[in-house]
């Protein structure tokens, strides 16, 4: 008997793994995924459910592989296009999801009038979005919400994250190869596709601050949405945080990581540093019980570190936003503040070894790396990249350990300052 073909193998694996995931939903009274307006906004399997989480990832990878195999190489290549981004951009830019309330219906003509767009363009943008399950057309010419369009209408942070994708990343990606050709391996955040797309020699953060404050605020909101989806449980379990006295949380925003550590561990005190606009109302968000342990300080980590002789200098998702030359600058900016034995704890997105992860996870992590190139001329780094960068910054930076979470795509680096 002939062995099953790859497409049959994939179909069988998809069926088996989907049944496993569905059984988990049923057993735990979790709503099944649905495009309906009341469908769950997010499908997430807790990391401790290892078998179910692995099956979930396998389904995502196998469905993509099966889709591409059934298309064939020619149709796969010719079918890669930007129209998904284009229709989503139209929906976002003209605020179409807010033109009628979730649970109600509207005609294309009604939506066009409210959004000040021609009915022809409204119809074609929305009908293309419907092929991605954003809106639906229950009867000819009448539009209703789906779970995805409802999110755009009701969740400001998700809406701003979509805005970031279509109005920052989309045009920047179109200029990224121009930047690579013009600048080579970037040494400055202004040598990026984003900077070329915005006709500036400044990097994204500098240009937001100097010229585009509204877009900067959108960026901050979008990053808040992204940060809210990242678990820090592994980080909390990776160190005896009570063994540290003072922790400097560099670029820490309103302090979500410091707050989480302080809620779990009673001894350390925290100084959260960031640019003035990022910490503007941070203290008012703090629980009264934490105000004596968490302080905020306006500080730019591109300048010399202002807090001397802390026990830990903590950097979460900072370095992957900067080209190598600027990462070296950030590291060296800490040196004059460090006491012997001081630690730098760095949590930063990383890259997997090729072929070592399920295809879905590898694609996601490599996509994030390309986003860093697009926005900042930057990159995500492996543990080996970090060893090399630490040696170049100063040989007294010594890597104690590098913990890699391959599923979440992060490195947790424990670096000690071992100068005499």
TrEMBL record:
Parts of the chain that traverse the membrane: none
UniProt source species: Setomelanomma holmii
InterPro entries linked: COMT-like (IPR016461), COMT_C (IPR001077), SAM-dependent_MTases_sf (IPR029063), WH-like_DNA-bd_sf (IPR036388), WH_DNA-bd_sf (IPR036390)
Name of the featured protein: S-adenosyl-L-methionine-dependent methyltransferase
Domain of life: Eukaryota
One Pfam family it belongs to: Methyltransf_2
Keywords linked to the UniProt accession: Methyltransferase, S-adenosyl-L-methionine, Transferase
Molecular function terms, GO-annotated: O-methyltransferase activity
Residue ranges annotated for the O-methyltransferase C-terminal domain, each copy included: 219-393
Biological process per Gene Ontology, one example term: methylation
Alphabetized PANTHER family for the sequence: PUTATIVE (AFU_ORTHOLOGUE AFUA_4G14580)-RELATED (PTHR43712), STERIGMATOCYSTIN 8-O-METHYLTRANSFERASE (PTHR43712:SF12)
